[in-house]
Amino acid sequence: MIRWGIVGTGMMAIEHIANLMLTPGSVVTALVDPEPASIARARAAVGGDVRVFESPAALAASGTVDAVLVASPNFTHHDVLQPLLDARLNILCE
Question: Where are the alpha helices (DSSP H) in the chain?
Fold first, then answer.
């Protein structure tokens, strides 16, 4: 089972979550976004138990995911990706 974390939970992330939920062997287990409304929409899309982290660094340090899908705005990618890369996580960057 691949445990996915999602960084950035806007509309594009909702599409990715739907596709991951249809992918055998994949489960979304963690979310990161500063906007509570976006987190709420993503939680509803996952429909199960999902942890919410305050930052990509906190997610990376948690040991709770195998891979991370980054769907945050492009200008955030450097800051978002660095702790994920440092943790040697598998990354799919939108």
Answer: 11-22, 36-46, 56-62, 77-86
CA distance 79 to 19: 26
**2-93 domain in CATH 1.10.1240.10?**
no
**Single pTM value for the model:** 0.95
- Residue 37 contacts by C-beta under 8 Å, 6 or more apart in sequence? none
Encode pLDDT of 37-52 as tens digits.
999 999 999 997 899 9
CB 1 within 8 A of CB 30: no
Name residue, tokens 């598998």.
Answer: 90
What are residue 70's DSSP bridge partners?
Answer: 7, 93
